[in-house]
Amino acid sequence: MERTFVLVKPDGVQRRLIGEIIRRFENKGLKLVGLKLMNISKDRAERHYAIHKGRPFYGDLIQFITSSPSVAMVLEGRDAVKLTRVMMGATKPEDSTPGSIRGDFEIYTGQKLVHGSDSPETARQEIENFFTADELVEYPLCLADWIG
Length: 148
Ligand code: IDP
Ligand code: MG
What we know:
Blueprint: E1 2-8, H1 10-14, H2 18-28, E2 31-38, H3 42-48, H4 58-65, E3 70-77, H5 80-88, H6 101-105, E4 114-116, H7 120-130, H8 144-147
Antiparallel strand pairs: 1-3, 1-4, 2-3
């Protein structure tokens, strides 16, 4: 089973979309193995978005992601990385199809509501940046044989 890291960003929390976003992943059949509401520190934000350092929006992005709480989670399931990316919708508003989170809740550029790891390797790094090992919970899902 694959794990991925997902963040409901400050705009998603402020717009009271936490439940809506988690519901979609639960309904799909992904399993929550980590979950917390948190203020992201500048250090953690800079590690998380290191790949974007130097891009014109980098400063605003760090400011935004540290401005108000986010909800961090780890989701587990078959092809969890790709699946959550599809469910999030594309980065560009014109490409994020209705039915996806971004496609359903954003019309213009905005701050994208949600982050999801873009590869299994990135997921490992991002999970480590946000969660300690003892914050990840191992448990069987009783419906796994039916929906997994
Ligand atoms: P992703 O969130 O779909 O993976 P990335 O290209 O990794 O998109 O960008 C990370 C975040 O940086 C986006 O979610 C968004 O908040 C911000 N961002 C990306 N491109 C732009 C831009 O062109 N202008 C402003 N912010 C951007
Ligand atoms: Mg990205």
